[in-house]
Amino acid sequence: MSAPHPNGESPLLELNAIDTYYGSIHILQNVNLQVGEGELVCLLGGNASGKSTTLKTILGIVAPRNGTVRFGGEDVTTKVTAHRIARGLAIVPENRRVFAPMTVLENLQMGAYLRPKADLKEEFERVYSLFPLLYERRRQLAGTMSGGEQQMLAMGRALMSKPKLLLMDEPSMGLAPILVERSFEIISQVHESGVAMLVVEQNANVSLSIADRGYVLSTGRVVLEGKAADLLEDEDLRKAYLGR
Questions:
Q1: Is 1-37+44-86+201-244 a domain of CATH 3.40.50.300?
Q2: Do 121 and 141 contact (CB within 8 A), yes or no?
Q3: What distance in Å separates the CA atoms of residue 23 and residue 11, rounded to the nearest whole number?
Q4: Which of these, 187, 228, 230, 180, lies nearest to 203 by C-alpha position?
Q5: If both were cysteines, with which of 90, 151, 179, 236 could 158 make a disulfide (CB 3.0 to 4.6 Å apart)?
Q6: Contacts for 127 with CB less than 8 Å, ≥ 6 apart
Q7: Stretch (H or E) spanning 149
Q8: Which residues, at least 6 apart from 167, have a Cβ–Cβ distance to it below 8 Å?
Q9: Each residue's pLDDT tens digit in the chain (244 positions)?
Q10: At what angle do helices 120-130 and 147-159 cross, to 10 degrees?
C-alpha cells in the first residue's frame, strides 16, 4: 500500500525509504518523495546533494539497495528503464541533449518511438500548440537552434510519448539568465496542460515560484519538504540549505 499523498490520494510516483549506493558509498539515505497526479514538484539541492542519483533511481538506471519505487500504482523497483518509460515516464535530460544532426520534426518523432504512428496526430497538435516555434522550425537542424529553442524541443520531444510524469533535470543549466525565466514559463505552461512534473534544480527561487510542493536534498537526505510557497518564504531555511 502506498502512503497517502498530501492531498489524500495515492501518489503517481512514490519513493519509500530509498537507500542507493555507489559501491560502498551511501548516496541516498532513507529518501521519501511523492508526486501526485497533475502535480509539479521540485527537488532542490546543491552539487553532490543526490539529485542526479534520485533521478537515476526513479528511471531504474541505478537500483536502490533498500526501499521501493512505485509508479502508477505498480512496484517498479526491480523493473528496467524501458518498462518505466513504457508505463509513462519521460525525461528532459540535463543540457537538453537533442539529436543535433536531425531536424526538429525528426527529434519529435524520436520522442514517440514507442507510440503507434496512427496515434501521433493529437500529440503533434499538442506540442505545436504549446511550442508554435517548433512547427515553424520543423525542418531546421536541431543543432543550429539556440539553447532556449533546444529546451523547447527537448520538452516537446518528451511530450510526444504522452507521459504521465515528466522528469526535468536541471532545466536552467547552460541557459543565459534572460532565458531561465522563459524556460520556467514554458515548464509552467506544460504543467498547466495537465502533465505531472518533477523538476530537479539548483535554482530555488524560480522553481519554487511555479511548483506545488518542494523537497530539499542535502548530502543524500531529504532535509526539508513542504508546500512550495512555504519553502520560498522561509529565508532561514533557504540560507541554511540552498545558499541563498
A1: yes
A2: no
A3: 30
A4: 180
A5: 90
A6: 108, 134, 156, 159, 160
A7: helix 147-159
A8: 55, 58, 59, 89, 90, 91, 92, 197, 198, 200
A9: 445 565 557 899 999 999 999 999 999 999 999 999 999 999 998 888 999 999 999 999 999 999 999 999 999 999 999 999 999 999 888 766 888 899 999 999 988 876 766 678 888 988 998 889 999 999 999 999 987 788 889 989 999 988 999 999 988 877 777 778 878 888 888 898 889 999 998 888 888 999 999 999 999 999 999 999 999 887 766 676 556 5
A10: 150
DSSP 3: P
In this prediction the pTM is 0.87
First to last CA, the chain: 38
User: Three cell numbers at 86?
Assistant: 513504457
The sheet that has 13-22: what strands, in order across it? 25-35, 13-22, 66-71, 74-75
Place of cell 538506471: 61
